[in-house]
Design goal:
Helices cover 45% and strands 6% of the residues. By secondary structure, the chain is mainly α. It has a domain at 55-103.
């Protein structure tokens, strides 16, 4: 005899998926050799900036006038011979940009 899929089952299933997803994300972060948080959603980035303003990313060209970043993967001039990025932009954390100004 088949059992009906009840709201309780749906809640348990959604809870399981949420825990599974979180576990996968934490595992991916654990394996990151640079111990960087990988952010794929703007809301997560915004919350990280609220917690620590040093997490703010700035466009290096806007922060340091005259700098010319060489973003090879936005062109075909790289070892794979094709564009990987659509936009030749470089973003760094604000403390890195401030430190770069003194070089």
């Amino acid at each position: 005899m088949l059992k009906r899929f009840t709201p309780t089952h749906a809640t348990l299933f959604i809870t399981f998926l949420s825990i599974f997803s979180l576990t996968c994300q934490l595992q991916a972060q654990k394996e990151n050799p640079y111990h960087l948080v990988i952010v794929s959603e703007i809301a997560v980035y915004d919350s990280l900036v609220v917690v620590n303003p040093d997490n703010t990313l700035v466009d290096i060209e806007e922060f340091i006038p005259g700098i010319v970043p060489d973003i090879r993967y936005a062109t075909k001039n790289n070892f794979i011979g094709r564009k990987v990025y659509e936009s030749p932009k470089a973003f760094v954390s604000k403390p890195v940009a401030v430190l770069s100004m003194s070089l």
